[in-house]
Amino acid sequence: MLLPKTYRKLVARRLSPHFREAAEIVEVLTPRPGPGELLIRNRFAGVNATDVNITAGRYRPAMTPPFDLGAEAVGEVVAVGEGVRDFRPGDPVGTIKLGGGYAEYQIVPAKHAIPVPEVSAEVVSLLVSGLTASISLQEVARIRAGEKVLVTAAAGGTGQYAVQLARMAGCTVIGTCGSEEKAALLRELGCDRVINYREEDVARVLREEFPDGVDVVYESVGGELFDLCLEALARHGRLLCIGFISEYLTGPQPVARPRIYARLIPKSASVHGFFLPHFVAHFRTHLPRLFQLYRSGKLRVAVDPTPFEGLESVADAVEHLHAGRNVGKVVVRL
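That's the Alcohol dehydrogenase zinc-binding domain protein sequence above. Prediction below.
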């Protein structure tokens, strides 16, 4: 295959939580893979709320601009380095690499590449968003049949998987969202109780309909909703904190209230932070199951219908997500 002399990628030129202000498209020479490496042509890149944390420099405080942007991507192998045996040009492949997603090409060690069943927006959605839900619910919260699971931002990129996987585990699932379009998706996914927070008071619904509390919370919004979820925990309840999108643009906000242990100890409850890179050892078991569930039709993948094409659209896609307009996973076609 004839490779182009150059390719384009997005880099952060300055530190800012405002993605558009930080990001810039640059053109660089196309590298050739070294021993044990792959050159991949990215076709789809996943958009994540935490992209603004990356441009703000919160992921690696010691890293200074310019640095590459993006996370998960899928595409095909276009060249292999010496000693690579498990991949060949044309193979569909996925990657989860900080700085690897928002680029037309990328070099990765073959041992870090992920064989995928197809090159599609659906598959890229399963990488970070699907793995986060699967690993955190099963390995950290250890959900059990009969439990009540509350999912915030349930119609988003990762919430959709938390809803479905909890239902598969035999749980009763409550999902929050902010529009009727999102509520309709959640009902289609099997959510037992959908709460549109623009039409119903979440605290009142939980208090009146689930007076004994919920056993597990899959929480990604933060702020006042985090506080509300903490109060809603049942005895031995577990709150999974996978993010706090409400404070990503401003940074974490200080609060003046009694410390959290005063609310946890009376219920023997717990709060678990979850950061996917700390659970790489579980990828080998969880990702094949997610692919199998998707290909068998048992797991639905909702990709946001708004089209985003090319690196020029990435800032629009990030802002679309942070405005809460997405229904499902936001994906950019490269």
